[in-house]
Amino acid sequence: MTETADIAIVGAGAAGLAFAWSAAAPGLKIVVLEAGGTVDQARAPSLRQDWELALQTTFNANPNVRQGPADYPVDDTESAIHPAIFNAVGGSTIRWGAHFPRFRPSDFRRQSLDGAAADWPLSYSELEPFYDTNDEMMGVSGLSGDPANPPRAPRPCPPLPLCAATERLAGAFDRLGWHWWPSDAAILSKASRERASCNNCGPCGVGCPLHARASADIAYLAAAQARGIELRAGTAVVELERTSNGRTITGLRYKDADGEGQIACGEVVFAGNALGNARLLDSIVDHRLFGRGLMVHPTAIVTGLFDESVQSWRGPFAAAMVCQQFCESDPARGFTGGFQLQALRGQGPLTTALGGYGLRVPWGQSHIPTFVARFGQTLSLTVTCDDLCEEHNRIALHETARDRLGLPVPRLIYRVGDNSRKMLAFGIDRATEALRAAGARHIDVNPLTRNAGFHLMGTARMSSSDALGVTNSYGRVFGMDNLSIVDASTFVTAAAVNPTPTLQAIALRAATAMRDSHTGTEKAVA
Amino acid sequence: MTDRLIALLNTLLPGDGADWPSAGSDAMAARTIELARGAPGVSDALTAILNALPDDFGTLQQTQREDILRGIEADRADQFDAVVTVSYNAYYTTPRIRDVIERLTGYENRPPQPLGYELEPFDESLLDAVKARGPIWRPVD
What we know:
The complex is a heterodimer. Chain A has helices spanning about 15-25, 50-55, 65, 110-115, 125-140, 165-175, 215-225, 275-280, 350-355, 365-375, 420-435, 500-520, and strands spanning about 5-10, 30-35, 75-80, 180, 230-235, 235-240, 250-255, 260-270, 300-305, 320-325, 340-345, 380-385, 395-400, 410-415, 440-445, 485.
């Protein structure tokens, strides 16, 4: 007899696990299918002396390099940006810096305010309670009162401290009269709910053995399971079954360690990121915009080199402080939209030698003097750009190449648009100005970080009109009876900041509506 | 082959003759081979680069050896890049080198965890100037 789930969720990452937790209700059978396995962060590489080697292998951000058991190849030959995603329970939050900014109200109204992009079919104020819930679940450290953002609830934990390097930068921003603020970080500055406090070790990107740095598995999985949801790790969905008119998904076929199986389902929720979703939905979603309009965050990294050690290896590498002076759009700058400057601390010795955010330290006689001048003496700023939705940027499927499951290999097709190029150039100048003001004597510029395909947005964008979007504001796919998408592929704009808090808030909102429609407590959302 | 590998490593990472040993010293050549074997294609790349060296490579001066390597780097960029990476991997994960780093920079010769570093409280007074400048976000509704 075929197993049946009321809700089947494909993907146990940031969105999928948040959705599962929120949708859970007595009497609802919810199953989460995740192709990847679990990652035991209690044994994170940062417990080993050679932890930096893991950044090149098991924790390499690029699945084409990492080639883990759950990774599928991505054809990026037509992309300026390489993919940076992680396939496991917890998704890409296993391999992240936990920088946790929110979109601002204007990010949802770019068409109305700036005549650019499109407005979202929902507003910041509609998402705000879900942002707040998510902050509590993920365990966010930060400080309310940021003048670059609307007032928000007190942060669950106090902000993480600055360090010698970021204090210099804070002073520089003050002298320039620019905004700065301690990052909202999904990292606990004090112990909470069986998670220890951060101990400032630095390399959050290889997992956190203290569970101080949140990932979706740490923050949501146990709570969701306590509510009755069922996780199937190592279970890769390979096919969707439909009714003859194609509008209703009746079941999912999957492969796991035991072979093949199928599960019938009432609702199907995809949270597998733009690449993973496309492998399964490209032949299901009959909408001209599906797969198109890919947005990333084109990112430059500007590194300042100081004359003396600032011990910049201390502290979470990506969640220290931000400058949002240039986030809001200003047409006088010559482009629409804005960018964020995000401080990145220095790296370990091996990663420094291999180039860190810039060029590799040269081999030969100049190696040691160059290494000595760099290690512990750098601080970087990202220039994280609000990308525009351009239809030629897209996810497509390879015509012939297949992965080990027999699914088509996704193609990442992306070139940086003119608007983003102008923004990058302007932002690089501002980052240079700030680092110079902080006392850096030498500046290195990486004008476009190739390994920045971590935020894949817009390929199933939401809209109030089926002519202008693939899903409605709850992620329900137009023209389908029971298919939803709840990850960053539904984004209408990219904003200038990391997407995880927003995609999780969207997932919580959609899940709440789906739960209430199933339990009869609110109007249906279809 | 080992002598040739040591000469190659000593050329890539010659140290400074004082604090920093060269990469061909101690057991770093063996560590390089071990790490190369653990990475797809790197052993082949290492063998190819070693085979491309002239027989008298080890007897030449550092500057002469560097000139030869620059030529090989230009001809076999991907293989040479893999060899440089694995050489750095071995060098910077060797305890003796980490001792030097600790002595000269204060970066302790231990894993980041479980000790970490002190997490001091955030000093909110640092934000006085930012707060005084007032809101900069755009209200919309």
